[in-house]
Every structure is written in C-alpha cells, then in structure tokens.
Amino acid sequence: MRSRQGIRKRNETMGTKEEQIAQIQGMKKKHNAVILAHYYQNAEVQQVADFLGDSLDLSQKAADNDADVVVFCGVKFMAETAKILSPQKTVLLPREDAGCLMADMIDADDIRALKEEHPDATVVGYVNTTAEVKALCDYCCTSANAVKLVRAIPGNKILFLPDRNLGQYIAAQVPEKTFVFAEGFCPTHHFIEPEDVRQAREEIPDGEILAHPECRPEVLSLVDFVGSTSQILKRARESSSLRIVVCTEQGILYKLQKDSPNKEFIMLSPKLVCPNMKKITLDDVHRSLSRMEPQIDVEDSIRVKALTALERMLQNV
Ligand code: 13P
Ligand code: SF4
Question: Does residue 132 have its Cβ closer than 6 Å to ligand 1?
C-alpha cells in the first residue's frame, strides 16, 4: 500500500512526459547543467540530451564544456571518466547501479598480476574499465581510436585489457606488435554467433552488415564493416545500401533512423541489448537533477593516475 501511494505521488510530482521535459530544461538552466547521453540509451533519454556520442566523443565533451553539472546518461565508467577529466564539475549518473559488465570483469589485482607477468609490456586499457584499473594503465583507448593509438605507441609488446575481442581486432591490424590479452568480454556483443550473421545474409541479401569490434573475430570476419558506434553511424549515413543490418546495441537505432529516415535498419539479433544501458529513464534524469544525486566521485590519488592514461589517449587522437 505504501509503495503504491509512493508511485502515485511520484507521478503527480513529475507530471506528464511533456511537463517532465519542461522541468528538466528548467532545472538544467538553474544548475547550469548539461545532459550527455550515449547512443545506447533509451530513446526518451537521447531526446532530452544536449549532446549524444560514443564513449570517445562523450569523454571529450565532458572535458570541454562550460557547465557546472554533467548529467551522464550512460554507464558508470563513462561518468567516472567525465569526473576524472573534469573534477571541478558535479557529475551525476542518474542510476548508480548502471555498471558495465565488461568493466567489472577486471580489477586492480588482476592487472597487477598481469603486469608482474609481463613487465616489458605497455598496458593499454579500454575506456570500459573502472577508474582504479585506468590508474594502472599506461594508455587508455576507445574502440574509435584503438588501432591508431596502439600503432603510435613506441613499445612493441602490448598488454591489452579487458576486452579480448577488441584486442584481437586491433592485433590483426597492427601485426608489427605482439599482444597479450586479458579475458574480458562484453556479454551483449560476445554472444552473437557467426550463424546469426549467415542467417541475416540469407534473409537480407541486399543489406550491409555493420558490427562493433566487441563481437568475436569469427563474427567480424563475416560482416561488411567494423567500427565504434560513431563509426557505424557515419558508415550508415554514407552507405549506398538502403537496408542496414546492425550488429551492436539496439539503442543506436534512434540515431540511425534520425540520420537516415529513408533507410531501413534491422537488428542482427534480439540479443543485442545492454541491460545496464537501458536502466536510465526520463524519470531518473528528472529525479537526478532535482536531487543532485547520485554523484560520481573518484578518489584523488586514483584520479590523477587515471588522468595520465586518458590524457595520453586524448593527445593521440
Ligand atoms: P563506443 O565506444 O563505440 O561508444 O562503445 C561503447 C560501448 O560500451 C560498447 O559496448
Ligand atoms: Fe559494457 Fe557491453 Fe554494455 Fe557496452 S554494451 S556498456 S561494453 S556491457
């Protein structure tokens, strides 16, 4: 009984969607806040965002804006990255429990053990890592800049973590270096099978298949294009194909359709959903701005070290 009353009260406070959006705009102005959202977010969240992007764009945007408050609609490592780059800003993650399953697959002890085993390797950490892990990396990268960055690194031996699939994708394009991989993966992308691609080819012979490098190599070898979310968006805009098969998280459909309303976008598999990316709703954005919580903080000793790895990435792209 108490919780039902609670729900009614909350809805009365927040009003209709239109009222909520107007209130969000008002609170943004009052707090000098900016809303950043990843392409995997729910469409209603992408609609109120001031800036949409992939993880690289969003980290750059977090560092390069005049707002006092950043409402980060994504997963925790992304909000932490914003805080590392802009410690003077209040960074809100509307759902504190929106983690990244891949980032949670490796912790500081794992990376210390790997470094001990491979003391001669340069450690490159995918941005999908906790702040603590970033603090132990020499460089950070995202899927948009990984190949370019790894090529430019002076060392010849690379310890890449946590995503083994992305690591193998990079290694295939940088054959002059040797690689050691951790065992992490993204459950949303990793469980796509080569058979899913073969079936899509058969059913949609005129379709162009675009995939994220977090998929397994045997899947990537069958698709037409591999790229980060922003690279997939660019390719879809420029493609002469009118039917595009999408092999990354389904939230990207919102921007794909907005950019190219004349094209048909088909998800390669219904499995391509990231439960954590789907946690944040408009209600959460509203509540977060009105309460100024949950705030993301990164302890200073960790922040300073993680910043070095992130800055090395930003200087190289
Ligand atoms: P992008 O860097 O391509 O935005 O990808 C982030 C991510 O979490 C992919 O699963
Ligand atoms: Fe993490 Fe995968 Fe979700 Fe991206 S899609 S946030 S890598 S779990």
Answer: no
Band (44; pLDDT cuts 50, 70, 90):
very high
How confident is the model over 226-270, as pLDDT tens digits?
A: 999 999 999 999 999 999 999 999 999 999 999 999 999 999 999
Q: Average of pLDDT values for 83-112?
A: 96
Q: Is residue 307 part of a domain?
A: no
Give residue 54 CA to ligand 1 midpoint distance, Å.
6
The answer to whether residue 8 scores a pLDDT higher than 60 is no
pLDDT of residue 3: 39
Å from CA of 299 to ligand 1 middle: 25
Q: Is the pLDDT of residue 59 over 90?
A: no
Return the ligand number nearest the Cα of 271.
2
> Taking a C-beta distance cutoff of 8 angstroms, is the pair 154, 124 a contact?
no
Q: Has residue 110 been placed in a domain?
A: yes
Domain that includes residue 200, residue range = 192-267
Mutate to test the pocket of ligand 1, among 41, 73, 142 (most ligand atoms within 8 A of CB): 142
Boundary of a domain, candidates 229, 249, 267: 267
262 and 282 share one domain: no
| Residue 34 maps to a domain | yes
